[in-house]
Specification:
Elements lengths: L2 E9 L8 H15 L2 E6 L7 E4 L2 E4 L7 E10 L3 H9 L9 E6 L2 E2 L8 E2 L2
């Protein structure tokens, strides 16, 4: 079954609703229960990021933007339409932020004999 990366964006310039983290936890629990979620990573705020460009290291996210990547989830879905339907349920889409859906082309998992390319 195809896998998709769900990149969760957060607008660092807005005040977020205190209920938002609980909604993200509930959404993750539902994806886990359905079997769609294979991995999930919440990231520390963008002001903790370090960007590497050439031989230099700077503070902050790599791009200059008010939106930063707040987390990444990996889901399995029958096709892009099914992945988009799951992505639309992400609380970030209701809180002034959003998600990006990208099909995974190749994977590597530590302990695997070699990387896998998906067609």
């Amino acid at each position: 079954m195809p896998q998709y990366a769900i990149l969760i964006y957060s607008d660092a310039t807005i005040d977020h609703d205190p209920a938002e983290p609980a909604e993200h936890d509930q959404h993750s629990a539902e994806l886990i229960e359905s079997g769609a979620l294979t991995a999930s990573y919440a990231l520390w705020p963008g002001d903790t990021a370090k960007a590497v460009r050439g031989s230099g290291v700077t503070d902050g996210p790599y791009t200059e933007s008010k939106e930063i990547i707040a987390g990444v989830g990996i889901i399995e879905a029958a096709d892009l339409d099914a992945a988009l339907a799951l992505a639309r349920q992400n609380p970030a889409t209701r809180y002034g932020s959003g998600v990006e859906v990208r099909e995974i082309f190749a994977t590597y998992t530590r302990g695997a004999s070699s990387p896998t390319t998906h067609s």
